[in-house]
Amino acid sequence: MSSDGRRWFEQRKEFAARPPDSDGAPERWTKCAACGEMLFDETLAENMAVCPLCLHHFPIDAHQRLALLCDEGNVEFHDEVLSPVDALGFIDSKSYKGRIESTRKATGRNDAFLAASAAVDGIDVEVGSFDFRFMGGSMGSVVGESITRLYERAIERRVPAIVVSASGGARMQEGVLSLMQMAKTCAALARLKDEARMPYISVLTHPTTGGVAASFAMLGDVILAEPRALIGFAGPRVIQQTIGANLPDGFQTSEYLLEHGLVDHIANRRELKPLIAQVLRALLLLPPGARSRRGESVAPRVVPG
Ligand SMILES: [Zn+2]
Questions:
Q1: CATH level 3 topology of 59-283
Q2: Cα-to-centroid distance, 282 and ligand 1 (Å)
């Protein structure tokens, strides 16, 4: 496990063990963006960065996300060294090279996706999460390659795949190279389903838009979403201007997509891990509580007839 991941696990343990006011450290507070309540940071951390009053889900980074989903001590991160290249020499208000450098310094990451071999409640999986802090979680060549490799490892090991999305879509600074990632990731995902016959769970978090929403994010065998996430291809203003009509209330939210059959279930962050484990056991025909050990096949048993 990388040092960031370890730190998050340790922080969670510390928060759980520490009695109130025991360390004399200055208290830190965060204002809930939805209900305006001031929340003690430790309370927020214990609550998986969800407001206890209104259930607003605060954004979390990729390490925090994987720490919440994966069993402790059983996480092997992949492809963290892959770095984006400015193949087009792209400059908008700032050069792409400059953006990469400043974002790398601010986040300590090389790009917007983190992948790992891990276990969810004892079930071996290949799992990955977007990191929205890195250029809005946009998908360029490195993100596409990391996700493709994730599916390929899942095919090789015959284990399920899980991808947690939080993305503004394709990375415009990489032009057509970023659009190609949609086809590339989906081709690998098709092999996971057709050749390895392993399930894929897609988790949509705020926001999941553009080329990510238009490719693997909406191709889950089971699609879960966090509450009140923005999910869609184009933004509401663009759609409104194009079709010249007002959009319904709650358009492009998790709840709207659930109502219209595009999402299978809305899961609060706290119930996400047990729910994923339950879904995987059902899809893999594993009995309740069954675990798969690293390196062993968890291929579904064939049910006669
Ligand atoms: Zn709140």
A1: 2-enoyl-CoA Hydratase; Chain A, domain 1 (3.90.226)
A2: 34
